[in-house]
């Protein structure tokens, strides 16, 4: 067993093992510089896959704001805080107690980054005790991902078909529940793909490709298969080009649902429901009014709409307005442990990790994803420990631990 496997789920043991191997003149297979993961992954990706994961909407303004806004907040350390243990990362979310405050964000088409795709990511998440969120646009079926995730905590993300396809939505939700996906995440900002210059320059839309690279959920669904056969008189496998085109119109239906449509989801899902893509206080309040269990404060990492506000700035405002009434999760722009700490201090109970774990997948499959997750948790632990913050509970880690500055250096 190598030192990656032997320290699964224990970031500080991982650090100790790396230094121990250094005594034998052995260096780790992956860098611990989180700012270098993207560059190393870029060198290995095709233009298509690089443009897809690293590209942004329009000029990339929203993405740049996401990153810069973290630097406006500083963690102010306290001294002579007597400690006998390392900080607790335990978080209470959606009626559960979870060992860490991060989760794998839903990212589709993962086989364009590594042949093992979602299978590797789901297995890594389970080994690190990190919840895994399955994307409706995955290249693997939810049944196969559930098997790879084993006893891990797994949640299901829905790209929501239009109301004319409610029977398909109900079928998908039934399958997810049957395969151990305990929470439903509904993405609100992607009823149509954004204006993405990188993908347009490459004339690349992975969802239109005549294979299952982003359509495994649909191709394996009995309702979608039946509807396709009734319309075309043949099985999906006999006409993959049309199957791909029809599936993309299901999960990206062009137009948005309304708040009243949430009643259908509640009827067909008996677990927690989380709305992903909330950025305004008004929408956060609407989520509370409609009985949602949580929201993800997110701008899709700047990949959908340009010219928007930084996600962390939205979190601060939303937390003040509804933080005591609904569970808050966060994503967009997270690249290191201190980013996670700042989001938690500003009111998030869980932080979703997106692009960084994809870079790990590119660099080393399951081991690469594990390395990224363990590194982020290790950084978070040490940032708290050396800052005199004994846990991530609101009692210990809150906005009072931060200092605000307009500096964007």
From TrEMBL:
The keyword Oxidoreductase applies. The keyword Transferase does not apply. FMN binds at residues 106-108, 135, 157, 187, 276, 298, 331-335, 354-355. InterPro entries: Aldolase_TIM, Alpha-hydoxy_acid_DH_FMN, FMN-dep_DH, FMN_HAD, FMN_hydac_DH_AS, LMO_FMN. Residues 26-405 form the FMN hydroxy acid dehydrogenase domain. It holds the Pfam family FMN_dh. Keywords: Flavoprotein, FMN, Oxidoreductase. Its cofactor is FMN. The active site is at 300 (proton acceptor). Glyoxylate binds at residues 52, 159, 196, 300, 303. GO terms for molecular function: FMN binding; oxidoreductase activity. Belongs to the FMN-dependent alpha-hydroxy acid dehydrogenase family. This is LANO_0C09318g1_1. It comes from Lachancea nothofagi CBS 11611.
